[in-house]
Amino acid sequence: MYASSGVDLLWYCIYVRPRHEFKVLERLLKAQKEAFLPSVQRLSKWKDRKKLVEFPLFPNYLFVRTLSSSEDKRVVLQTQGVVCFVGTNSGRYCSVPDEQIASLMKIIESNEPVNPYPFLREGHQVRVKKGPFAGVDGLLIKKKGLHKLVVLIDMLQQGVSVEIDASDVEAV
Hints:
- By secondary structure, the chain is α+β, with helices and mostly antiparallel strands.
- It folds into 2 domains: about 10-110, NusG, N-terminal domain (Alpha-Beta Plaits, 2-Layer Sandwich), CATH 3.30.70.940; about 125-170.
- The chain is about 15% helix and about 35% strand.
- The chain has 3 helices and 12 strands.
- Strands 1, 2, 5, 6 and 7 form a 5-stranded antiparallel sheet that branches. A 5-stranded antiparallel sheet has the order 11-10-9-8-12, with no helix packed on it.
- A hairpin with an 8-residue loop joins strand 8 (about 125-130) and strand 9.
- The longest helix is centred in the middle third of the chain and has 12 residues, at about 100-110.
């Protein structure tokens, strides 16, 4: 979901209050800001029915295209539901490259099945957050195209590995 306007603008990522992504998108669009909320439809099941429901691909985050001026950013920050711009530790706001946003838009508009994928690199220390190995800490590695969780026993200088879905782990 997005709307467009203007040139010489930069894309920024903003953090919003939980479950306010669609409301903030609507408010930004009303304020004539270009905004993009990558979302996907999922089948939700209740006791009595099933329904397709739209969910943000990245909960609590959306993208806004704005001038780099502090005045323009203040307008975004004053939008109800916006918590902050995502930036660096030094307090600077980092823009998101246009190519990344364009690629993300193209993927979302394709209506192909899309799933979030954790930003983890081989060798990162991770913790399993769900499934039969929930709570287990180890190293994430990739071997022959498959993700594996490796648990090392330093004293023995040995380890064990198990195949795992990368979406089941989080960085420690």
